[in-house]
Amino acid sequence: MGSYYYAVASLPYLTFETEDVPGREEFLDICRQWGTESDLEILTRITLEPDAPGLHPLLDRYQRFETGLRNELVKQRSQNLQRDPQDYIHSDNTGDDHTAVSGLSEQVRAAVQAPTPLKADEILDRLRWQFLDELEIGQFFNVQQMIVYYLRLQILLRRNSLTKETGREEFDGHYQKVRSQMQEIQNDNGVQA
């Protein structure tokens, strides 16, 4: 069992507003120094995507929450689009879609109704952060605390990558792609551009 006293002491304290964070490799290098091989095996496979069941019970709890959050988003967005959500709902082998978390429906509704996609994303990330707060209760200097830290770090790294510049680049790329497709359609139909 790893002892993460020094690892925790050497990592910066993370809040939802933290901008200057260590990178993934920097975090994993610190864990390599103080943890066990089996802990490192778990940590290196952690992502925000709910696709690695069975790595660790605490991570399984987070992944059930994330699945429920995404399923609730599917339900509410499908309702707004008047579509059947069942094709997009992910359930476990018992049929549970993990959306029965108290208050989740109302909080997701706030994200769906947010004025901008960035604000919606912030609301959802704050929900994730709040759940991680719950998971961290009673975890001190152990792999569980490192799992929570790494999930938070990934949230912040993703959030910090959302800049005006990258957004503009993405928009321009999509715009050019649509414009090219429109040009091809016009050319195929014999329309002068």
Index terms:
single chain, 2 domains, 8 helices
Description:
The chain is mainly alpha-helical and 193 residues long. The chain folds into 2 domains: 5-162, no CATH class; 163-193. Helices cover 63% and strands 0% of the residues. The chain contains 8 helices and no strands. The chain has helices at residues 5-10, 24-34, 37-44, 57-81, 104-112, 117-136, 143-160, 164-188. Helix 4 crosses helix 5 and helix 5 runs antiparallel to helix 6 (117-136). The longest helix is centred in the middle third of the chain and has 25 residues, at 57-81. The termini are far apart.
Give the termini separation. 68 Å
How many H/I helical runs?
8
Low-pLDDT stretches: none
Percent of sequence in beta strands:
under 5%
Number of strands: 0
Query: How many domains is the backbone divided into?
Result: 2
Mean pLDDT: 91
The major beta sheet can be summarized as: none
Helix and strand run: HHHHHHHH
Q: Which structural class is indicated by helix and strand composition?
A: mainly alpha
Helix content: 55-70%
Radius of gyration: 21 Å
The backbone outline, from C-alpha atoms, is: globular
Enzyme class: hydrolase
InterPro entries: DUF2764 (IPR024492)
Keywords: Hydrolase
EC number: 3.6.3.14
Question: Summed up, what is this model?
Answer:
This protein is mainly α.
Question: Helices, strands, pairings?
Answer:
Blueprint: H1 5-10, H2 24-34, H3 37-44, H4 57-81, H5 104-112, H6 117-136, H7 143-160, H8 164-188
